[in-house]
Amino acid sequence: MFDGSLRANLVLSLPALALAALLTILTSLLSPAFLTEANLGNLATRLLPLGLVALAQAIVLFAGRIDLSVGTIMSLATAIMALGSLNLGWAAVPLTLVAGVACGLFTAAGVILLRINPLVMSLATAAIVKGVTLLLLPSPGGEVDYVFYELVFEREALFGPPLLICLAAYALMFLLLGWSRMGRAIYAFGSDAKAAFANGVSGARVDLVVYGAAGGIAALAGLFLSIRILSGDPLIGEPYTLDSVSAAILGGVALQGGRGSVAGVLFAALALVLVNNMFNLLGLDTNLQAIAKGLIFVGALVFFMRTSKSEA
Amino acid sequence: MSKAFGRNPVLRGVSFTLERGEVLALVGENGAGKSTLMNIISGGLAQDSGSMTLDGLDYRPARPVEAMRRGVAIAHQETAIMPDLTIAENIYFRREPRNALGLLRQARMHADCTALLAGLGFALDPRALGHSLPAAERQLVEIARAIERRPKLLVLDEPTASLSAHAAETVLALMARLKEQGTSIIFISHRMSEIMDAADRAVVLKDGALTLEARRGDFDRDDLIQAMVGRTLTMVFPERPAPSSKAKPVFELQSAGNAQLPPMTLALRSGEILGIAGLEGQGQRPLARALCGADPFTQGTILIDGKAASLSSPAAAIASGVASIPDDRKHDGLALSLPIRMNMSLFAISEKARFGFLPLRAERSFAQDARARFSIRSTDLEQPVGELSGGNQQKVVFARWLAHVPKILVLYEPTKGVDVQSKSEIYHLVGELAAKGVGVIVISSDLIELIGLSDRILTLYEGRLSGEVERAAFSEERIMALASGPADMAREAAHV
């Protein structure tokens, strides 16, 4: 079933799986509060936005690109929800997602039409989106309809809606990336853009698809974040940009593109959430958390650079 | 058809016809315009002027995918294999079998691929990833992919350059089979024997212009070489006396190797030009990079003038008297946007520097002399190197490296993308240096160049020296056989 390059990509996700398992065992040994229903529900709640934004980043990275605007798109999404959910009701949801996709397409347009370096273009998008968000919502506030909260977060349990939504998004992308021609073209483009072009891949279409999808998924991540905090916050998304890259790399996705699986990204996102949880349960300084995350990022980069070198 | 890159014309009014079921050999030296022509035919480049018709209809593919739709498939020499996809995924890319839901049928595709490869006679594993393949296997994948598209016109860009003699035979037999089924084929080759065997028609390009179009039987090897080079070979290559066999070895490797290069032993005499031949990807690059100190030898002994020497970095190699001309001058040799003057003086005249500053006058006079000595054709010394033709760019590289006469000169593909006039000048320059006692190592994929220039040729196979031929015994067939490895040598011996 997992044939061809898919198998090689799944192998790359094993280190993240091992790390997530190790952290689970370690934390459950260190803290009796870990294996309680409330804590597991809390884990799933925290996994949802991080998991989604990491998925968005991974799709872009598979194509050999990077999107540094996913965090600000999340912030924008919280602002739109906070301002719109009470008057617009359910219509605020598609509006938020369309705004996210539009941000992604804007980045792609700069890359395709103006030939701007993708990393730089996504930074420019990030700056613009941040400005727009601050115009809409200068400080944390607004209100998100409690109806949404009831639907998603009310029941605190491991296998509640947050985890199921996250898993569904990953399953869908796993299928589309592994078993569709567009998915294959994304991997091919990231693996070697020139070779993919010679074989008939349109680079412009790949850019539109990956940045558009990433923008939409990042907005979805922001949407759930706003539901959880029941308000908007113009700066809340920013740390998620680095976390998204971190989770993708830790999950075995190559910065150069063409390698890795969303399965690994899910395990890596879980590992990052577990690190967070472990620090909280053990009552460690939150600043140490940031340092630990940065070190994990560097460690992942070094680890995967080594393995890809030894193959070549 | 005509095409120019910047100010350098690469195709000048080339016209020819190819019939259904015909095999056309496109012949010419490196840089003659063959690959540019193939790229235009396969939609990778657009011509500046001229037109093509395919089956009587106007044909002007703007992108590779349009050429594919019209039934034109190309197997590139610089293979377009996606490194993170398997062989099967590469071959069936964008034509993958799908189920009713539009999802890819991976298992079915790998099974189809197994059958396809067996039918073609290629011993490849459909599940092997692109980046794990050696050059020869990448080439076979490229050929299989082009054939699987069932094209009307199949373009093969040097299909056999990286193949052993046995694998090359398989490919040539395949071409004959396709031709019988009505496929028209254009193939580029440097191997005279396969051109004579397989081509119904030969078209020769020289410096972008067509110099010969002839049907089978109307041309022989000498006609092809004459048309390729524009004159007889003796005028292109310097006339040199054989180096004295008593000359001392100036450079020796004793079991020297590194992670990419198995230990090798060789000796180069003063004044000798030693050619290194081989199929593509047999260790030429690691050897060239080890000799210039970029990826140094990590084991064994290196002797220069009989004394132990170290080539542990490019700076150490230069200090030991080893000058190296890289194959990729655009990446490893030149700063394309800087003027000729600055490119030449990058390190060549650092001893003229005062307190770390280089007097502009000294730099200018050095560049002036070098430009005259190497007959570099440019508007002036301030012209950016990127605007020069390939031949003149290469002469700038030579000028920089040869400000002082080195003990050993290492040349790696010295005339890639260089016009015939500049080639001849470069060959004569190398000849002069050898006459001064410089030991020269030429690593090249151009057999005509090696045979014309060398006193002795060694062959590389899988990173090891697989054979040695002295000048008196030079022949294309002999060298190809030695370069094809032990299995092919045994087959060769059985034939004799």
From TrEMBL, chain A:
Molecular function terms, GO-annotated: transmembrane transporter activity
Cited InterPro entries: ABC_transp_permease
Top-rank taxon: Bacteria
A cellular-component GO term for this protein: plasma membrane
Keywords assigned: Cell membrane, Membrane, Transmembrane, Transmembrane helix
Any single Pfam family the record assigns to this protein: BPD_transp_2
Keyword set includes Membrane: yes
Its membrane topology: Multi-pass membrane protein
Main location: membrane
Location(s), subcellular: Cell membrane
Parts of the chain that traverse the membrane: 43-63, 96-114, 119-137, 157-179, 208-230, 262-282, 288-305
Annotated protein name in UniProt: ABC transporter permease
